[in-house]
Amino acid sequence: MKKLILSAMALSLAMPLTAQQKPDEPAPPPRWKQGMTPEQANSTLHPFAAKLTGVEIKDLQMSKLKMPPGFKAEVWAEVTNARSLAVGEAGTVFVSNRDANNVYAVTTKNGKREVKVILKGLNVPNGIVIIDGTLFVAERHRIIRYDNIESRLDNPPEPVLVVDGIDPTNGPGHFWKYLAAGPDKKLYFNIGSPQNIIMPSFIQASIMRVDPATKQMERVATGVRNSVGMAFHPVTKKLWFTEHARDWITDDLPHDELNVLSREGEDFGYPSCHQGDLPDPVYGKFGSCKQFTPPALKMGAHVAPLGMRFYTGSMFPAEYKNNMFIARHGSWNRTIKQGYDVMRVVLDAKGKVIKYEPFLSGFLVDEKADPPMWGRPVDVQVIADGSMLVSDDYNGIIYRISYSKPVVSAAVK
């Protein structure tokens, strides 16, 4: 398929105007209700808001967390609405948020961590990534860069624009971005569908790529409702990404997805087909599921998979090398809740999923309660010592997962 190339200027000129509500029209329903059937109009299901004031560490239910033998979870840092994670060459951990407007830096000196706000006043700075010492930040409408950021944490440079116009309708849904660095040192990011279920425009419901040097943008995948997690396999260099499926079909349908991009230009089905084999009740007439790329894994209905990483450290046992870890934020659009965990995905030599199992669980305490959980994983990040960080935007906490080989007592021997 011929590459679809857009310049930032052409994109900004092509942006449609936001529709204006007429004075005599009723206010539209909240964006998360869009796509409801008449029978679902009285549903009590609703999204869960984060605790933007944070939580006392003593109130965290850490004893409920479950992991394989030898693994341990501990509180590593407190960061308001902690979302995406990125690590600099000097070990600084950068943390974004979605519901506020800051980017944070977490540094460690003599075993003590310091959290400082380094960037303020941004517009939903959810996506962050480091390439060659430069911090890239994806706001809802643009991507900007801060060069040599680790040497200037106390006095960050002025931002340099990479690309603008990536929130074409300024709509209410799926406007936050996730950033990943490709082997080509280009930036990969999502432009989500502006609604739960709708026919998207050319660049919506897509994964895009931009070259920071030339500022040229390309569409590499389409039919992706919203991806808030992506990473490149350390060996094959293929792009893997999570995808949130639509709401308001049933409790058990459709499944959220784990996808892999095998060739540029692939169409993953949205809005016509979900989970590779489920035609949409409204948009299914516009395309057969057979013509789209199916998911590599059905992850469960409404589990909200977010950040993901391949494990490239040396602390975990050898069988974890190059395994995938995926944070599942947890369901709201489901009567019996599920998710709220970190899952482990194992691939075979051909890149097929052969294992999908819980790695970190225990945040979900009552699947029928409102809310049903005490924490919500968002992103994962391997750091220099081989341990793995997990962000939790619900509590404003970053956890550290470490491993020590279990000691077998003489009595057991």
Report what the structure shows.
The strands form seven sheets. Strands 1, 11, 12, 13, 14 and 18 form a six-stranded mixed sheet that branches. The protein has a four-stranded antiparallel sheet with strand order 2-28-27-26, with no helix packed on it. A four-stranded antiparallel sheet has the order 3-4-5-6, with no helix packed on it. By secondary structure, it is an all-beta fold. The protein has one helix and 28 strands. It is globular and about 60 Å long. The N and C termini lie far apart (61 Å). Residues 1-21 have low confidence and may be disordered. A hairpin with a 2-residue loop joins strand 7 and strand 8 (134-138). 2% of the residues lie in helices and 35% in strands.
- Which stretches are low in confidence, meaning pLDDT under 50 for 5 or more residues running? 1-21
Our Rg estimate from Cα atoms comes to: 21 Å
Q: What percent of the residues sit in helical stretches (DSSP H or I)?
A: under 10%
Query: What oligomeric state do these chains adopt?
Result: single chain
Order of helices and strands: EHEEEEEEEEEEEEEEEEEEEEEEEEEEE
> How many β-strand stretches?
28
- What's the story with the biggest beta sheet? 6 strands, mixed
Task: Please indicate the percent range of residues in DSSP E strands (runs of 2 or more).
Answer: 25-35%
